[in-house]
Amino acid sequence: MNHVKKVFPGVQALKDVSLELRAGEVHALLGENGAGKSTLIKILGGIYTANAGEIRIHGKPVAIGSVQDAHKNGISVIHQELVLVPRMTVAENIFLGREPETPRKTVDFKKMNREAAKILDSFELGIEPDKEVGALTIAQQQMVEIIKALSFNAKILVMDEPTSSLSEKDVGFLFGTIRKLKANGVGIIYISHRMRELEQITDRITVIRDGEYIGTRDTAATGSDELIAMMVGRQLTNYYTRTFGEPRDPVLEVRGLSDGKLLKDISFTLRKGEILGFAGLVGAGRSEVMKCVFGIDPITRGEIFVEGKKAVITSPEDALGLGIALVPESRKLEALFPEQSVMFNLTLKVLGAFIRGVFVDFEKEAAITRDYVEAMGIKTPSYTQVAGNLSGGNQQKVVIARWLATKPRILILDEPTRGVDVGAKAEIYGIMNNLVQEGVSIIMISSELPEVINMSDRVIVMSGGGITECLPREGLTQEAIMRCATRHAGGMNTEGEHHD
Ligand SMILES: Nc1ncnc2c1ncn2[C@@H]1O[C@H](COP(=O)(O)OP(=O)(O)OP(=O)(O)O)[C@@H](O)[C@H]1O
Ligand SMILES: [Mg+2]
Q1: Model-level pTM?
Q2: Which among 119, 263, 346, 430 is placed 20 to 30 Å from 467, CA to CA?
Q3: Strand, helix or coil at 75?
Q4: CA of 41 to the centre of ligand 2 (A)
Q5: Taking the CB of residue 100, how many other CB atoms lie within 10 A of it?
Q6: Mean pLDDT within 29-54
Q7: Average pLDDT score over the chain
Q8: Ligand 1: which atom is nearest the Cα of residue 211?
């Protein structure tokens, strides 16, 4: 791709970006949130048309005006946002637009399911072809998305943050697949904010910043400090900001909580002004606990106390009323209104602050928006920009800001830095540190162990729906956490309780 330019109303997303991909290499595309990574690969994938520049494949200029054109040219893209249709089955999603037909020109569902089963089996994922995609976990949906892209037998495969919600095991599996494809001469463009992954799997790295090409480096010969400096245009110091204080009174106590499904006898205490980390493998039940505490999912047993008083939480409104806020894991699916403006999305939970009856205080609304856009460094051309048009990382910041605006006393963050760039991560850590110093208490679910270790006062580790350990900050290591995360939860009788 040579000298590609792309203009959106109010934003020049790509000013002049070039990218060279070789056969059989994994090439990382690295840059801050909003740098233009997804835009560039959407041009390659036929979703957007560039305003200038050219695409050459094996030296020949090609015109890619549609997704079908991209497929014809051997290009397959796994997009950052899941684009599966939730109401359709796994097989229907994989074969969407190229369904096998019966002699009577109707869709041959039998054949489709058979073919899909063949592909799914070869990946040993235990996903049924006739299951509705909406019923799968986010990680499973992401795997279906990956499998779908692979099923095109593309020569150029693009992955835009493919691992954002995968477990270690699935990431290992994906990397195995990538190595096989490489050996077969497939060229892979790989986008991720996880530097460790880039070191593991990529051969070269191209950095872009604010829609400009900055440079291309051999991964093996380049340190992450240099890459970060290329990305953000300066050295980044004080990555983790954290001032630790003395332990204070409990603000939230959960005792013996069960949900009748996965969770068994969950008890923990959150103290005022602390960050309580929640670690564990994907599927350990961390998000499920928080959904119960926040009133999204019902509990079958157990009690919750807020500031010493027994709390009845049967809906998110109840939780909000008690000063609890939850920033969910899947911002896109559970939270963002992509058709609405940045301002709408950001002020959604604090309408009372600027609406009195039929009077809307527009200045107040804009002021709230400005505060958080500035504090979180949200990159948007205006407050009225449609939220779905922001880059993936900036969409996440909008959703986090929405909950911060409620000024919660207890803030639950589920994977707060997933998909955000290093600069924004540092900003989010700084904000978290400020909040706890102001006396807010934070629960942080995170799969990024360095983040858990550096930011938490204490860490609760979950496994198989139970708590295995509560680790103090002193002597916290990745190994200690992983050991607890793979251990069976607390000697509880887990078999006897379940009859399904
Ligand atoms: N459809 C659109 N309409 C208007 N602006 C857009 C659109 N898509 C992207 N943009 C803008 O273009 C810029 C680049 O966005 P892009 O999604 O390519 O960033 P990115 O590098 O993928 O970031 P992230 O790491 O957050 O995913 C951003 O400023 C974004 O707001
Ligand atoms: Mg993106």
Answers
A1: 0.74
A2: 430
A3: strand
A4: 9
A5: 15
A6: 94
A7: 89
A8: 14
pLDDT tens digits, 113-142: 998 998 888 777 788 999 999 888 877 888
pLDDT per position as a tens digit, 318-352: 999 999 999 987 655 567 898 999 999 999 989 88
Tell me, in angstroms, the distance from the centre of ligand 2 to residue 483's CA.
34
Domain ranges, ordered by start, for the chain: 2-232, 250-485
Ligand 1: residue whose CA is nearest its atom 12: 13
Which protein residues are within 6 Å of ligand 1, measured from CB?
A: 8, 11, 13, 31, 33-39, 80, 379, 389-394, 421
Question: Would you say residue 499 has pLDDT above 50?
Answer: no
Q: Is the predicted pLDDT of residue 235 greater than 70, yes or no?
A: no
- Residue with tokens 């679910």, as numbered in its chain: 445
Structure tokens at 225: 């400090």
Could you tell me the CATH superfamily of domain 250-485? P-loop containing nucleotide triphosphate hydrolases (3.40.50.300)
Contacts of 485 (CB under 8 A, 6+ apart): 279, 280, 281, 284, 461, 462, 463, 468
Q: How far is the CA of 33 from the centre of ligand 1 (A)?
A: 8
Q: What is the pLDDT of residue 496?
A: 35
CATH-assigned architecture of domain 2-232: 3-Layer(aba) Sandwich (3.40)
Q: C-alpha 74: how far from its chain's center?
A: 28
* Least-confidence region, from 163-172, 237-246, 260-269, 402-411: 163-172
CA distance 248 to 257: 23
CA angle 180, 185, 186 (to 5 degrees): 75
Mean pLDDT of 15-19: 97
**Residue 139 CB contacts under 8 Å (≥ 6 apart), including other chains:** 165, 166, 167, 170, 282, 283
- How many whole angstroms separate alpha carbon 6 and alpha carbon 40? 8
250-485: same fold as 2-232?
yes
Which ligand 1 atom lies nearest to the CA of residue 31?
21
Q: Is the distance from CB of 27 to CB of 52 less than 8 angstroms?
A: no
